[in-house]
Each structure stands twice: as C-alpha cells, then as structure tokens.
Amino acid sequence: MNYNNFQLDTAAHDKELFLSSAFPALMRKVYVWMTLALVLTGATAYGVATSPGLLMALATNKVLFFGLVIAEFALVFGVSGAINRLSLTTATLMFVAYSVINGALLSFIFLAYTMSSITSVFFITAGTFAAMAIFGYTTKKDLTSIGRLLFMALIGIIIATIVNMFIGSEGMSMIISYVGVFVFVGLTAYDSQKIKEMLLSQGAGGEQGQKLALLGALTLYLDFINLFIYLLRILGSKRD
Fold it and tell me: Which tens digit of pLDDT belongs to each residue from 119-160?
C-alpha cells in the first residue's frame, strides 16, 4: 500500500467512525437543545403571563419592550454570524438567553388566546414539525432549490408584515399567516436536510461539531416557533 492509499484508507476509516458514533450523537444534541429551548420559552412565557407585575412592565415600558426586541435580534444574529468565533459555552448561554427573552415576548399570546387552543395548536405544530423534519432528514431529493424559493417567500412575508403594520388589514394578516405556515413547513424539511449535510461534512466531533449542532438547534427552534405562531393565528380561539 502506498502512502496516498494509506491516507485515503485512514480518512475513510475516520469518516466511518464519525458516522457510527459522533454524527448520531450530534444529531441528538440538535433536537435535545431545540427541545430544551422550547421548554424554556414556554415556561418563561407562562411565568410572565401569570405575573401581573412583569406583564404590566412589558406592556407599559416601551424602553424595556424594545430593549428586549433588540436584544433578541442581537443574540440570534450573534450566534448565527459569529458561531465560529464564539466558545461553545458562550454560544450556549446566548441561545439560552434568546429562548428566555423570546418567551417573555411571547407571553402576550396567553392573554389573546385560550389555553386550550394554545395547547392544541402546540401539539398540531409538534406533529407537523416532526413529520417534515423526518421527511427532510430521510429524503434523497435535494431540497436546495426549494429552500431558496422559500427564503425569498420569507422575505416577502417580512415585507408584507411590515406594510400591514401600517394598513392594519385583517384579511392581509390571515393571508400572511397561511403563507407563513406553508413557508415554515417547507423550511423545516429544508433545514433538517441542511443540518444533516452540514454535520456530515464536518467529519469530526469536538467543540466545532457541538457548535454546529447548536446552530442547527437554533435554526429548527426558529422554524418551530414561527410555525406555531402562524398556526395559532389561523386555528387559535381568541379570548372574549
């Protein structure tokens, strides 16, 4: 065996070891971190919603409210854009902080919708998300082109939402919600496939693999939350 063949055999062996041990562990971490973030968000949202003082502070203090919104955007873009420069501990703490802040801002859904409808829509979201995540993970079809189209549609949703903030059209809001469900159902499948391929291409575990898994968890967390919100707008029963 010459040296080049030895290198190829060694690389193939390392890849096989990664696929048999590190890769499944990293994929589990993606969903464990995502689930823990959802639990934190839900617990925070309920805790704030059942605390009149905290809820009043959020509703009346514009500096606090917009400060949390800015912090939320800063954290999600910070983790996404600087994941390679951050330590795993720092990135994890930022993800946790984002989950808590997002929960505080989502606390108002408990005032707008009944608890029973929030619960039922959550389970509908979980079932839909699981089905599309499994599809994205197992399908042999390349979803890259679909992902690009969905991303463009997402930009359109953002623009339409901003415009509707000034128009205040209930009809447009409902159309945006239906389109939003379609977009995030598709993005769940696309992101699941992308995360799988990203971790496979990494080819090794260690801190870098852990950080990529954390980034994947954040991506799927955002898909789940947005899908839940749009489904809630369509299916949720509002309080009298």
Answer: 999 999 999 999 999 999 999 999 999 989 999 999 999 999
The letter for the amino acid at 78 is G
Question: What's phi and psi for 168, nearest 5 deg?
Answer: 70, 35
> What residue spans define the domains of the chain?
3-235
Residues 6 or more apart in contact with residue 53 via CB below 8 angstroms: none
Q: Which amino acid is at 73?
A: F
Count of CB atoms within 10 A of residue 218's CB?
A: 24
What's 106's DSSP letter? Answer: G
Angle between helices 206-235 and 88-105 (to 10 degrees): 10
CA distance 153 to 147: 10
The pTM of the full predicted model, rounded to 2 decimals, is: 0.87
Q: Which of 181, 178, 177, 180 is nearest to 128 (CA)?
A: 181
